[in-house]
């Protein structure tokens, strides 16, 4: 690959990129983590075999290229029952708090390709909470939402994550003698020859998927939530934007509602007084 395509993204490059994006669309990356955006931009320059000025010119004149660039920058990875210890906490400490409710409203903010959403639905089903749950899911990236709504994944790519299914659904970390005989086929149709893992139709019917920009949009589902899951998203935001997003969650959580972040994410600053941290979860206290 020509050397000119192997480059670092400078502060000026990032400033120009943010300016073009804001002028040419409704997106705004100016308060995203500079390190994260620079890293993803550098990859895009290599992938597109171009330089920054050429990319900026294409962004100005080509709406389809702009949308694709936004999708490439915002795509995040996910997996079934990612970080089983989080799911153990959900199963044994968080969801039981809401078991007596007439309904349980759950929002997956930044749901990516949806494996987390289906993990939640499977868990709710095993806990006998499926019928009373209302599950909403959103992402800024329309491509990943399309994948999520279909619930079809590569089997060989996801086969390792079935170990997470075992740890969360079949095993009890608090009682290793207890084992739940739950076959994968209860929730998935697996075709090893075609390399397909498809979520069962009843799972596909439950969640409501919508495009949503945490930077600019309010609560598009017009409901309040018992539980908000936003994992491995705010790590890409700067401090000020993180606090705006935390305020969005706080305003739309019921009192004593729960917010779950990623393993390496935390609430800092002014919003620490609005939430009580227990284990790896945050409960709204005011």
Summarize this structure as a short list of keywords or feature phrases.
single chain; 286 residues; alpha/beta; 10 strands
Task: Describe, in plain words, how this protein is organized in 3D.
The protein has 286 residues and is an alpha/beta fold. The protein folds into two domains: 72 residues, no CATH class; 151 residues, Vaccinia Virus protein VP39 (Rossmann fold, 3-Layer(aba) Sandwich). Helix content is 40%, strand content 18%. The protein contains eleven helices and ten strands. The strands form two sheets. It has a seven-stranded mixed β-sheet with strand order 6-2-1-7-8-10-9. Helix 1 packs parallel to helix 3. It starts with 10 loop residues before the first helix and ends with a strand. 31% of the residues are buried.
